[in-house]
Design goal:
This protein has 11 helices and 19 strands. It has helices at residues 14-25, 38-41, 52-60, 65-70, 90-93, 104-117, 238-248, 300-321, 325-352, 360-375, 377-388; strands spanning 2-10, 30-33, 49-50, 72-74, 76-81, 84-89, 99-101, 121-123, 127-132, 140-145, 148-159, 178-193, 202-204, 211-215, 220-227, 262-275, 279-280, 283-285, 291-292. α1 (14-25) runs parallel beside α8 (300-321), α8 (300-321) packs antiparallel against α9 (325-352) and α10 (360-375) packs across α11 (377-388). The longest helix has 28 residues, at 325-352. The structure holds flavin-adenine dinucleotide and 3,4-dihydroxybenzoic acid (DHB).
């Protein structure tokens, strides 16, 4: 069946849903195509931290009400190393900014509800998505729904289909400028039923590797430890997991991790990846389809939000003012904020993780960097400014 829309969006992750909602508010029609079911995308456990600009954006767009009610504002974080914990007062270091702990799947639920309520169609469970005619005035997305072939003709395609989706691959390889780095470690993440061990997130460096103590609610906690990316969750009994956390978090101030039944375990890979070519003809990439960060520093979803702000503004200029400049500049503009987030995530990862086979000088540099961040106000400010999130506008020339 042949259908049309102004913008065809592939992927109902944070990038695709946010874009659909913003375009609707600007009077631009879109259709979202998602390969998974609504129940599946609303239950996938991923990110937990929203930067200040992302949280403000959700409020401005009228989708922040539940986040404000059920999310948690964190005004500081702790860095733990050498057996001691050190608090960074984010609010003080950034003129009043903070982060919001609110799970990504809750953001997804809020956005799906808003997008459907404003009459935008999301087609769940689509298959065999293929992009064509990207260099023409009317690109097309071919796909299947319930076994029947479909075609969505549009003015523009937004490739918001994550790292493994087809959009980036639709750009000819010879034109793609890609940069990639795979880290020799992964993160072992758990969800458990327990009270919070700390009022704020703890990023801990130890000789046995990194730990992150995060939270989801007064009764559910999210914790991660650095692991071998090839390891299997089957090798880790609950007792072994808690013993590992306790060894890595051993400290001199008597602080204790609160334990509880573990109900979810998973291993995630760590990579830095940037496709500098975020546009090809009438295809525009946003979010993980164009770039991936290692999770340290919580930048992935927030970088996706930055891309979408620029893309929706550029589409607004095209449709409302008949101006192409912002669309033409999209890739070059968006990539600047992406590089900043990529560098910060790499920097945080290197400062907090121990990698096998490192020399002693690298380990001492790491310790010196940590000392500098907690002892120098400019050092702390630099981390805090990046962590709470640089303004979306800072990168528009
Ligand atoms: P995705 O969320 O990957 O969405 C892409 C969508 O496209 C998916 O729904 C997928 O099903 C769909 N899709 C893919 N292929 C197709 C196809 N062929 N056809 C149709 N649809 C398709 N980021 C943060 O900012 N803060 C954090 O605290 C944080 N913590 C994290 C913790 C973990 C454990 C992990 C794994 C990630 C974390 N991230 C964090 C990163 C963040 O989750 C991602 O950057 C974010 O999901 C990117 O959003 P996206 O919309 O670009 O892509
Ligand atoms: C979480 C994930 C992160 O990558 C991070 O830096 C902080 C928190 C989380 O899932 O809670």
């Amino acid at each position: 069946m042949k259908q049309t829309s102004q913008v065809g969006i592939i992927g109902a992750g944070p990038a695709g849903l946010l874009l659909a909602h913003m375009l609707h508010l600007e009077g631009i029609a879109s259709v979202v195509l998602e390969q998974r079911s609504r129940a599946d995308i609303e239950a996938t456990i991923k990110a937990g931290v929203l930067e200040h600009p992302t949280a403000e954006l959700l409020k401005q767009l009228g989708v922040g009400e539940r986040m404000q009610r059920e999310g948690y504002l964190h005004r500081g974080i702790e860095l733990s190393f050498g057996g001691k914990r050190h608090r960074l007062d984010l609010e003080d270091l950034t003129d009043g900014k903070a982060i919001t702990v609110y799970p990504q799947h809750e953001v997804i639920k809020d956005l799906v509800a808003a997008v459907l309520a404003n009459g935008t169609r999301i087609e769940f469970g689509v298959d065999a998505v293929r992009l064509a005619a990207l260099e023409s005035d009317q690109p097309v997305i071919h796909y299947q729904r319930d076994g029947a072939a479909q075609e969505l003709y549009c003015d523009f395609i937004a490739g918001c289909d994550g790292f493994h989706g087809p959009s980036r691959q639709a750009i000819p390889q010879a034109l793609r400028q890609e940069h990639a780095k795979v880290y020799p470690s992964g993160w072992f993440g758990i969800l458990c039923e327990a009270p919070p061990s700390s009022d704020e997130l703890i990023y801990a460096q130890s000789d046995r590797g990194f730990v992150l103590v995060s939270t989801r609610s007064p009764t559910v906690q999210r914790l991660y430890f650095q692991c071998d990316p090839q390891d299997s969750v089957d090798n880790w009994s609950d007792d072994r997991i808690w013993a590992e956390f306790q060894q890595r978090l051993a400290n001199q101030d008597g602080w204790q991790l609160k334990k509880g039944p573990i109900f979810q375990k998973g291993i995630i890979a760590m990579r830095s990846f940037i496709c500098e070519t975020m546009q090809y003809g009438r295809l525009f990439l946003a979010g993980d389809s164009a770039h991936i960060v290692p999770p340290t520093g919580a930048k992935g979803l927030n970088l996706a939000a930055g891309d979408v702000v620029l893309l929706s503004r550029a589409l607004h200029s095209h449709y409302r003012r008949n101006q192409q400049d912002a669309l033409d500049a999209y890739s070059a503009t968006a990539i600047q904020r992406v590089w900043r987030g990529e560098h910060f995530s790499w920097w945080m990862t290197n400062m907090l993780h121990d990698f096998e086979g490192e020399d002693s000088i690298t380990r001492r540099f790491r310790r010196s960097q940590l000392d500098y961040v907690v002892k120098s106000r400019p050092g702390a400010q630099s981390l805090a400014e990046n962590y709470v999130g640089l303004p979306f506008d800072a990168w528009i020339n």
